[in-house]
Amino acid sequence: MGSDATGANTHLNPAVEILLKFVNEDLLAGSQEKVAPDTALFDEGRIDSLKILRLIAFLEVRSGQKIPDELIVMDRFRTIETIAKNFPER
Amino acid sequence: MNILNSRASTLPHPDFYISDDGLLSLGAAETTLIHALDSKFREMALAAGAEERQFPTVIAEEILDRSEYFQSFPQFASAVDSPSKKGKYFLSPAVCYHCYQLLKNSVLAGGTLLSCQGRCFRAESADDSHLWEFTMREIVFLGDEGFVRTQCDAWKQKIALWAAQLGLTANLAPAKDPFFVAETRGKKLLQQIKELKFELTAPGLLGRDVPVASFNLHERFFTSRFEVTLADGEPAYSGCAAFGIERWCMALIAQHGVNEALRRVEESDDLR
Questions:
Q1: Cα-based distances in Å from B70 to B63, B67, B76, B119, B237
Q2: Which domain holds residue B136?
Q3: Pick the residue with more confidence: B151 or B14?
Q4: Crossing angle for the helix pair B28-47 and B145-165, nearest 10 degrees?
Q5: What is residue B204's predicted lDDT score, i.e. its pLDDT?
Q6: How much is the average pLDDT of B24-46?
Q7: Fewer CB within a 10 Å sphere, N or C end of chain A?
Q8: Under an 8 A CB cutoff, do A47 and B190 touch?
Q9: To probe the interface with B, which of A43, A53, A54 has the most B CB atoms within 10 Å?
Q10: Contact criterion met (CB < 8 Å) for A42 and B194
């Protein structure tokens, strides 16, 4: 892994860092387990049907664009790194 | 002789008779092809270690209710009366529901494969790809998450390879409609992103792509409702591969004609 699971790695791409902070400190707040930039985000049931909507809302605010449902697929959402690459900040 | 059908003339194959209610009858060669196709799927299932089971064509309302079938697909259910008039029954919409009932309240010793074939009924609007009554062969896999995912992936690859061996032009892709109807946008998107259902589609008799096989990951949906657990007490995972035998038959006939289709199926290797 390129970083630890706390998001404290100082070499992270800023977009990855912001997303990592949102996921670990907001989406997964209260959960013992934290994710790393390359963690398979949808394994282990860690993202439920409410969390996916909050994640999409977060990305839409950052990108300033609505994300069509057809773009919400595993190839674009596999990890935090994948998401940051596919949904850049405006 | 066209005994059932008012619609045979709309299909470009003379020995497929489909009634307005989606009831199919077949000619002799087509019937032979149906049997040959199911034999191949059965051989593949048994070679993979599946235990074959046979279940009734009707299914108790309680089993469908526990599977949340009426919440997902209320419009497809066909009720039937039982002789005693005591129990409430429906024509089975899929054969795998019987497997979860079979394993209800059980602890799995390890990865488990079951195979079953049966007549299934879905009261959809009838056309060449949506029959009210059809034949489905299923392979159901239960175990831990890794076992179920590995089986599902293996069956995807095996069946796509077999379709290629038959010379059937087909496409394997995530399905657009989910296995369970998601009542919220969040659930729908979660199913979509997790790619819980893949379909192998092929052009049917009218040239439209129709799913001939589906490969489904149920996560713990059925096992939590039927209390099927692993040795550690946690619900098992489940998944299934399902083959619509009449759709395979129609797709092969559309692409090769019935005699050539039968030759290809009978001469194809068993994929193990």
A1: 11, 8, 9, 19, 22
A2: 27-55+94-264
A3: B151
A4: 140
A5: 87
A6: 95
A7: C
A8: yes
A9: A53
A10: yes
Q: Which of B2-16, B124-138, B153-167, B179-193 has the highest mean pLDDT?
A: B153-167
Contact B186 A53 (CB under 8 A): yes
User: Residue A52: which of B186, B195, B219 has the nearest Cβ?
Assistant: B186
Instruction: Answer whether residue B3 is part of any domain.
Output: no
- Supply the CATH number for residue B110's domain: 3.30.930.10
Q: Is the distance from CB of B193 to CB of B222 less than 8 angstroms?
A: no
User: pTM, whole model, 2 decimals?
Assistant: 0.84
Q: Per-residue pLDDT tens for A3-43?
A: 445 445 557 799 999 999 999 999 999 888 899 999 999 88
- B82 is a domain residue: no
* Homologous superfamily assigned to A14-86: ACP-like (1.10.1200.10)
Q: How far is CA A65 from CA A54, A70, B74, B181, B186, in A?
A: 15, 14, 37, 28, 18
Tokens in use for B191? Answer: 């199913």
pLDDT digits (tens, 9 = 90+) for A8-18: 555 779 999 99
- Judged against a pLDDT cut of 70, whether residue B122 lies above it is answered with yes
Nearest-Cα residue of chain B relative to residue A54: B186
What mean pLDDT do residues B124-151 have? 89
Q: In the A/B pair of chains, how many CB contacts fall below 8 A?
A: 37
Instruction: Say which range, A9-23, B112-126, B244-258, has the weakest mean pLDDT.
Output: A9-23
B12-21: long-range contacts at Cβ-Cβ below 8 A with a sequence spacing of 24 or more? B12/B205, B12/B206, B12/B254, B13/B205, B13/B250, B13/B253, B13/B254, B13/B258, B15/B258, B16/B128, B16/B205, B16/B250, B18/B126, B18/B128, B18/B131, B19/B126, B20/B126, B21/B126, B21/B132
Asked whether the beta carbons of B241 and B210 are under 8 A apart, the reply is no
Name the residue ranges covered by the structural domains of chain A.
14-86
CB A40 within 8 A of CB A78: yes
* Number of domains chain B contains: 1
Of B179, B172, B167, residue with least CA distance to B140: B179
